[in-house]
Amino acid sequence: MDWEPDAAARLEKVPFFIRKKVKKQIEQYVQDRGGSTVTGLDVAEARRALAGEAGTGENRPGGKDNGTVPHTAGGLLSAGDIERIEKMVESVVDLEGLNTRCRQVKVCGGAAGCPLSLIQDRKIAQSLARVLDQSGLEDRLAGRVEGPVLFHHKFKVAVAGCPNACSQPQIVDFGVIGQSRPGRGEDPCTGCGLCVETCRENAITLAEEGPGFDFSRCLNCGQCIQACPAGAIKEEESGFKVLAGGKLGRHPRLAETLLDLADEDQLVKALGGVVRVYMDHGRSGERLAGLVDRLGIGRIREMIAPSDNEDSGPGVD
Ligand code: SF4
Ligand code: SF4
Ligand code: SF4
To answer: Which atom of ligand 2 is found nearest the CA of 213?
Structure first.
């Protein structure tokens, strides 16, 4: 079906992960009314109709709108759902008790129910806040500052439920991203191609025996697992990407990967270890980013690794 430029521009504003579903709904709506091209007015009408108000179909010559609300059944999203999800994705959730005078713990909209989240954002953020509570970092940082605590004085943690990273874990001291790594499932692939269409990283190729994954491109977002209707893709592994040493300010720096596909225990220990190393080896006034720059992320990884008599930690590619 053709889309007029105005209609296509409106569709672009819908979050990418539900865009395909919304497109299908709108096309069905137009088709039901005898149309073959989607106009801007159709998009507005369809969204109103899907929200519960019947569309008029007046703009379609011979339109056969019968006043019913189409296609809200069968798991399709209403405009109200879409708006709710849009708000979640945009928001960073403020959870009580996570922020103190000298630290900030940001959580993405996963904590408010964003359907893309791969982790229990709220629980993870609370566990990390507990590690910080017990570390003595608050007193250490407070002791450094004379006068008001400014934004750059604070130790910052960000938790993101998926690789979309809405809470910006790349620009904080310690960042966490939920991960879900795909693998071939037990059931046969039908060759429908939905996984290939879904993957924004072009990380999937289809062969006769099923999907193949290019893990140098894959971000472990898990969306192909959700998209496959046949059970031919399954979650092979899940966990957390752990980042350290990011900051903004006068000399911005992106955080580097400390651990990949870590489990919750390894994540919690990593934060404890990073804070310990920071308190023991950070120079006066130095931010964690400066320490990571000075020692290198590899050295930090070694310094937080469990001793020989503990379980070995996860690796990094
Ligand atoms: S990071 Fe992922 S889970 Fe969190 S709000 Fe963004 S899209 Fe949703
Ligand atoms: S998990 Fe990897 S292969 Fe699957 S959609 Fe995400 S990036 Fe693509
Ligand atoms: S793996 Fe699943 S989504 Fe991909 S082509 Fe096969 S059946 Fe379709």
So the answer is: 3
